[in-house]
Write a structure and sequence with these properties.
There is one protein chain. The chain has 268 residues and is mainly alpha-helical. The protein has one domain (3-266). It is built from 14 helices and four strands. The chain has a two-stranded antiparallel ribbon. Helix 6 packs across helix 14 (257-266), helix 7 (128-138) packs across helix 9 and helix 8 (159-170) runs antiparallel to helix 9. The model has no long low-confidence stretch (mean pLDDT 92).
């Protein structure tokens, strides 16, 4: 694990929701990360207001991924460094392209996953602009937190915090963010989208704690905090991957959920 990945890990582990939003338009305090975040010339984070540009970005290498993983090889693959301190015997580091997330939870790529989530959010009642924006941002942190777990699978520890930081710093240009409230909603959603299965089960007090953090984020406006909590619950049913080859084949069928969501994202 190189020094930039260590900085990324520290940044994710030490960033609260409020701190993530405070990065809005500002540097993170890690000079190498900040320089690479904004390295437009080297394919840095989009400054475009096009959802399609952000969607394409999910599958591309850029200055920061090159610094973390090294430049992709001739097949477009990178090595996902071990995310665990002790490397299990017989387990090799996972190798795959940017946006690969092959594990027991996701056989689809990151872009395919975002396409699926987009369709499910629209079916759940979100508008197209809200659904495409939140879907394309919710897992963007996976680009910079890819690792290999103890099972030899791709993993993305800290990706929600990393995604919230990216959303706060650079995504304000997206068209859904007509006011600061939509932008804060997106940061709160991205930061907390894994909580229904990672933090809250068996710990009801943590759900209330996060609601209070959201109220602070929204400067006391509980209605916006409630809406963000509702969106997190919606994501809990939409943010589902393909766990079997049969599910993946069905999702990839012509006219299937991936093609439907992909076309929608590329039109925005």
């Amino acid at each position: 694990m190189n020094s930039i990945m260590k900085d990324i890990r520290y940044l994710c582990n030490s960033t609260s929701l409020i701190r993530a939003y405070q990065y809005n338009g500002h540097a993170t305090g890690h000079p190498d990360i900040d320089r690479l975040f904004f390295s437009r010339r080297n394919g840095g984070i989009p400054s475009s207001n096009s959802i399609a540009d952000w969607f394409r970005f999910l599958g591309k290498s850029d200055a920061l991924t090159d610094a973390i993983y090294g430049k992709p090889d001739e097949n477009g693959n990178i090595v996902y460094p071990f995310a665990v301190d002790k490397h299990p015997d017989g387990i090799k580091e996972y190798v795959g392209p940017i946006g690969d997330q092959h594990s027991r939870w996701h056989l689809e790529t990151l872009q395919e996953h975002v396409a699926m989530v987009t369709v499910r959010l629209i079916r759940a009642g979100l508008s197209e602009i809200e659904a495409t924006t939140l879907a394309v941002l919710h897992d963007i942190g996976k680009k910079y937190t890819a690792g290999t777990n103890k099972h030899g699978e791709a993993c993305f520890y800290g990706h929600a915090a990393m995604g919230a930081i990216l959303t706060a710093i650079q995504a304000r240009c997206l068209p859904w963010f007509t006011t600061t409230w939509e932008h804060r909603t997106a940061v709160g959603l991205v930061y907390g989208h894994t909580f229904p299965y990672s933090e809250w089960p068996g710990h009801p007090g943590k759900k209330e704690e996060y609601f209070l953090e959201l109220v602070e984020l929204f400067r006391g406006e509980a209605s916006f905090a409630n809406r963000t909590m509702q969106l997190i619950e919606i994501f809990n049913t939409a943010d589902i991957g393909c766990k079997t080859s049969e599910e993946l084949a069905e999702a990839r069928k012509p006219g299937g959920i991936i093609e439907e969501g992909w076309a929608l994202l590329m039109s925005k």
